[in-house]
Design brief:
The chain is mainly α and 438 residues long. It is built from 17 helices and no strands.
Length: 438
């Protein structure tokens, strides 16, 4: 009886589940590397202004790479899956040339002007704080360009369903960890800056090696005659706007936290890093497992819709169970990972409280990922822009409101409200709209 039921399971579900387990395993290893990095930073620097500055600058430097990562995955993966192999390589070569030029230009601009921008955004900082932020800004500026390249290479590998590249996302974290642990105690900014730069450079070369091994590495071509540019340009504008809007949620968190006292940003950062073990597992494993399948030309729109609804429901239940477990064991997890050295028991209590409110987002986050991938695979990018605007409004208003009564934990609760509203909007559109490309 069991064997007969297994035989009747759709092969597409098996394909998605297999991809999810594979990616999930690699993501877990990469995220644990990230958690180990945070443990090392917490032990050496505690909840200090130095960590605040490092997190603030990293957030701003990685803002555009984060936008491009989402755009590249949402647009490049479905497009690449539908292109013949020779046309795909031609387009990738021409796109690579464009991204290389943009990467160098933006890194130079960040080096020159990011310190002044941070001084304008945070005008009440002391002279020492301004100098610290400027040092991080100049030192971490190359991460901007490298992040753009990493996003493009990762999207190309995802389109090939070469999920082992996910494991390499842990390289920067491991290198930062090694620098923080072994750098002489006299250096404060240096181990964080050098570790970040060396780590991201190794990540770039690792992805290039994977592309070369799969015979998909290309030499940049400064031309624009690939037929794929038409479809790419039609989608890129709306997706860039959508992801720029969504990317502002991270600075919004930082700005709200900065008004809650010294160490608030660091507390929120440690909580977010712990939550990232769960969120990253869901976002990467689910998204990278299901998007290539939904983007296949062989999967029709009605079948894609049915798959999306089935997996959204399943992952909502999984997220709900995970949220309950996360709430119950948050204090234990924070204490196990961070409570040593300069990180006190009071810091543990503060971070754990933020984590408890943060795990409330898990069921809405996991199910929402599937819905987002469905609309990406069918090219309805305007819907994602609409929900991005709604998300930013809900995130800003709810986080500010909850922070007035719950403190830093209120910011995490605001994120949960954002994913709840976003998920409901996407579900209603999916159910009510006809199953056809827009």
């Amino acid at each position: 009886m069991l064997t007969d039921r297994l035989k009747r399971i759709d092969k597409t579900h098996i394909h998605i589940a297999r991809n999810m387990l594979t990616v999930g395993f690699f993501v877990a290893l990469a995220k644990f590397a990230g958690a180990a990095r945070e443990v090392a930073i917490a032990r050496r620097f505690g909840v200090s202004e130095l960590v605040d500055h490092y997190v603030l600058v990293s957030t701003f430097v990685l803002l555009l790479p984060g936008v491009w990562t989402s755009v590249a995955v949402s647009v490049l993966v479905p497009l690449s899956r539908r292109l013949p192999h020779d046309q795909k390589l031609k387009f990738h070569a021409q796109l690579s040339a464009v991204i290389c030029v943009i990467s160098v230009a933006l890194s130079i601009l960040a080096f020159l002007f990011l310190p002044q921008l941070l001084a304008l955004i945070y005008p009440d900082q002391s002279a020492d704080d301004v100098a610290s932020l400027a040092l991080f800004a100049k030192g971490l500026a190359p991460l901007l360009g490298a992040g753009l390249l990493i996003a493009m290479f990762s999207a190309q590998l995802l389109a090939l369903e070469h999920h082992s590249n996910t494991l390499y996302e842990g390289i920067p974290a491991i290198i930062v960890l090694l620098f923080v642990v072994f750098w002489p105690m006299g250096g404060q900014h240096t181990p964080l800056i050098l570790g970040s730069l060396v780590g991201v450079l190794l990540h770039v070369f690792a992805l290039l090696w994977l592309l070369r091994r799969s015979s998909n590495a290309v030499v940049p071509q400064f031309r624009f005659d690939s037929p794929a540019w038409k479809g790419f340009k039609a989608a890129i504008g709306i997706m860039v706007m959508a992801n720029i809007v969504m990317s502002f949620t991270a600075p919004v968190e930082q700005l709200i936290a900065s008004g809650l006292g010294e160490g608030a940003i660091a507390t929120l950062n440690y909580a977010n890093k712990l939550l990232a073990l769960l969120l990253g597992l869901g976002a990467t494993a689910v998204g990278r497992a299901i998007l290539p399948v939904l983007s296949n030309a062989s999967v029709d729109i009605n079948r894609s819709k049915k798959l999306a609804l089935q997996w959204a429901g399943l992952l909502f239940l999984f997220g709900l169970i995970l949220a309950v477990v996360g709430w119950l064991f948050s204090h234990f997890g924070v204490r196990l990972l961070f409570e040593r050295g300069a990180f006190s028991s009071q810091d543990t209590a503060n971070v754990a409280r933020v984590v408890q409110f943060g795990v409330c987002q898990l069921p809405f986050f996991f199910s929402g990922i599937v819905l987002v991938q469905f609309f990406s695979s069918t090219g309805r990018y305007w819907i994602l822009f609409l929900t991005a605007v709604i998300a930013l409004i809900v995130k800003t208003s709810s986080s500010y409101y909850f922070a007035q009564t719950l403190g830093i934990a209120g910011i995490a609760l605001g994120t949960s409200a954002m994913y709840l509203v976003n998920g409901l909007v996407l579900l209603l559109i999916l159910i009510r709209r006809p199953s056809a490309h827009a």
